Amino acid sequence: MPIVKYPRATEPLWHEWDGKAQKCGLRHTIYAVNGDQYTGEWLDNLKHGKGTQVWKRTGAIYSGDWKFGKRDGYGSYSIPDPVTKEYKKVYTGWWKNDRKCGYGAMFYPGGERYEGEWSGGLRSGWGRMYYRDGSIYEGQWLVDRPGGQGMLRLPNENRYEGGWKDGKKHGPGKFFYLDKGQLFEGIWAADIPKCGILIDFGRDEAPAPTQYPIPKV
């Protein structure tokens, strides 16, 4: 009986090329069409694991954790200085679904800095903000503004402790005029004190007390 030999089926070359093109695991630098580049780990053709992304248009760099193509986990984001071209850190902390989420530190132009909680890319929760003029706010944040309970300390050490809404003093609060040795306690609305009482508070130790003390009632 004659033996019939059937030719062995061979897969098209594009199958092999496609298999090699699939990105999974640790890979060398991959360049996008727009010039962006990524070096790190992949899973099913998506950035996943540890990796570094460089955006060609802005020169910005993100180095940290990725999850299914988005920044997710812990990582830092930096941009080059337009003059010196040296990289300046903008944000270091936690990310979720490509946005700042969890605890992180943000560095703003002019030396301002925020350390605290984030949600959906906005300051939300508890945090501390260092302003350019030397003021420091520490307390609750809501939708990127002070909201809830917090304390604002001014450069001259005077401070406000109380409620906040939309970034302004709102609700019951206390303002300590430590330079004059006085305390105002009352109700605020949109940064304006509506009613309250003003009393002497540490007047003898104040550096610049008023000329006459407030008489006791």
For this entry, give a set of tags.
single chain; 217 residues; mainly beta; 15-stranded antiparallel β-sheet; 1 helix; elongated
Walkthrough of the structure:
This protein has 217 residues and is mainly beta. The chain has one helix at 13-21, and strands spanning 25-31, 37-43, 46-54, 61-67, 70-80, 87-96, 99-107, 113-119, 122-130, 136-142, 145-153, 159-165, 168-177, 182-189, 192-200. A hairpin with a 4-residue loop joins strand 13 (168-177) and strand 14 (182-189). The protein is elongated, with a radius of gyration of 29 Å. It comes from Pygoscelis adeliae.
Give the strand order, joined by hyphens, for the main sheet.
1-2-3-4-5-6-7-8-9-10-11-12-13-14-15
Order of helices and strands: HEEEEEEEEEEEEEEE
Mean pLDDT: 90
Query: Percent range for helical residues?
Result: under 10%
Shape: elongated
Q: How many individual helices? A: 1
Largest sheet: 15 strands, antiparallel
- How does the helix and strand content classify structurally? mainly beta
Quick rundown:
InterPro entries: MORN, MORN3. It contains 1 helix and 15 strands.
Please write out the topology:
Blueprint: H1 13-21, E1 25-31, E2 37-43, E3 46-54, E4 61-67, E5 70-80, E6 87-96, E7 99-107, E8 113-119, E9 122-130, E10 136-142, E11 145-153, E12 159-165, E13 168-177, E14 182-189, E15 192-200
Antiparallel strand pairs: 1-2, 2-3, 3-4, 4-5, 5-6, 6-7, 7-8, 8-9, 9-10, 10-11, 11-12, 12-13, 13-14, 14-15
